[in-house]
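Notes from the 1:1 (GR / supervisor)

We went over the backlog. Supervisor wanted to see one worked example end to end before approving the batch request, so GR pasted a single chain during the call. The sequence is below; no edits were made to it. Supervisor asked that the structure be written out right there so they could see what the output format looks like.
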Amino acid sequence: MESSQANESDSTGSSVLETENRLIGLLVPLGAGLGILTFLAVFSGWPLVFKVSRLALIFLVAGKLLIFVGLHPRATLSIVEIGILVSFMEISIAVFLSYYLDLLYKLPWLGGKIRKCREQCQVLLVAQPWMRKYAITGVILFVTCPVSGTGVFPGTMLGQILGLRRKTIITAAVIGSLIGTMTLVLGASLLGAILEEWIRNPMVQGTVFLSLLAFAMVTSFYFQRALKKCSVTSSKEEGACRPVSSDL
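Structure output shown during the call:
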C-alpha cells in the first residue's frame, strides 16, 4: 500500500514538474517577444511594431534569407537588426519545439507534416551515420544552414530523435543560429558594400531577389532529390523508410 502511494506521489510530482516545464517553454519566448514589442511601442511607436511583426511572419517562410531584405534602400531595419530578429525567432522556436513537439503531432494537418519531416530526419541519420556519433555537431549544422529542408525546426527534431536533452538541443540551436545568422549578416553587408552604387536601381534589386529565389529553389530541389536517394538506399538496407511513431 505504501509502495503504491509512493508511486502515485512520484507520478503526480513528475506530472506537475512537466507541466511547469511546458509553461516555461511557452512563457519564456512569448514573454520575451511581447516585452520587445512593448519596448518598441513605447520608444519607437506602433508603426515600427507592425513592421517588425510583419518581418517576423515573413521569417516563417523565408527563414534566414530574410536578412537580405536589409539590402533594400527603404528597408525598415538594417541588416544587423534583421539578423538579431532572425536569431531571436529561431531561438524562440527551438525553445517552444523542445517542449511542445510531441503535442504538435496530434494536430490534424500539421501533425502529418511533422511526421513526414521526422521520417526525413531518420532517413538522413541512416545515410549519414556520423550524425549519431557527433549528434550536437549535426544539430548545430542543421540549424546553421539556410538551405531549404534544414533550419531550426528539423534541427530541433533531429536532436530529439538523437536523444539529446532539452537544454542540449536549445544550446545547439542557439550556437547554430548565431553562426548562421552572423555569416549571412556579413555576407549581406559585403554584398551591400559592393552594390552600394547600384542598389537603388530596380533592376539590381530584382536581380538580387531572383538570385536568392533561384538559390532557394535549386537547393531545395537537390536536397529533396538527395533525400529520395537516401530513402531508396536506406529502405533496401535497413527499412528506414517505413512510417515511424510520433511518440518521443
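Supervisor's comment: The longest helix spans residues 2-43.
Batch request approved.
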